[in-house]
Amino acid sequence: MKGTVLDFSVQSNKGIITLDEKRYHFTGDQWKEQLHPKRGQHVDFEVDEQTGNAINIYFVVTPSTSTPIKNPQTESNGQTKDTAQAETNKFQAILDEYQKSVMTCFKKYVDIKGRAARSEYWYFQLCATLIMLIMSTANDTLSTIAFVIFIPPLITVTVRRLHDINRSGWWVLIAAIPLVGSIVILYWAVSKGSPEENLYGPPSQ
User: Which chain positions lie within coiled-coil regions (predicted)?
Assistant: First the structure.
């Protein structure tokens, strides 16, 4: 089926395709191209019979009615601009995901319910590590404050990360075992989460 992208949000990773006055919702994992979808783009897609959502979505290249004479210099500049735009979009997507992960962990400051994807866990670990390192170079007081602020959400996001691989959050206590505990937690933290709903809920978006 061929339709048009009506809307897409990088923050929620969700969008809508319209076709014959009907709307089909989709999520970013069904988008099969490298660049993010944009409003007004023509796409080819399938419809999930169970949910009615759009799946397996691709760009539709509109054929040109005439073959223009190509200018090598112009074509080269166009390719350079496309590459630069693609890199900008990629960086923006990473930045959006980083901000979303940090905000989620602070919103769930003491919340151990649900699941946390690898990106949410590692982006927050990066944020906490950088800030605590910076504070530790300033003075002991700031270092202690940073430690107190970040420890609760670091523990809760670790519990939710364990939930994502279908393990009980109580396994976080294994970190108390010197060296061995840290290695085990690290292994679980980099493990891929359950692709479907598990005992702790649906996959983190």
Answer: none
* Residue 68 belongs to a domain: no
Burial call 132-160: b when 16+ CB within 10 Å, e when fewer: beebeeeeeeebeebeebbeebbebbbbb
78 assigned to some structural domain = no
Q: What percentage of residues in the chain have a pLDDT greater than 70?
A: 91
Total domains in the chain come to 2
Average pLDDT over every residue of 76-87: 78
- Domain membership flag for residue 26: yes
Structure pTM? 0.57
> 3-state class of 53 per DSSP?
coil
| CA nearest neighbour of 61 among 30, 20, 33 | 33
- Would you state the pLDDT for residue 8? 87
* Full domain range(s) for residue 170: 95-190
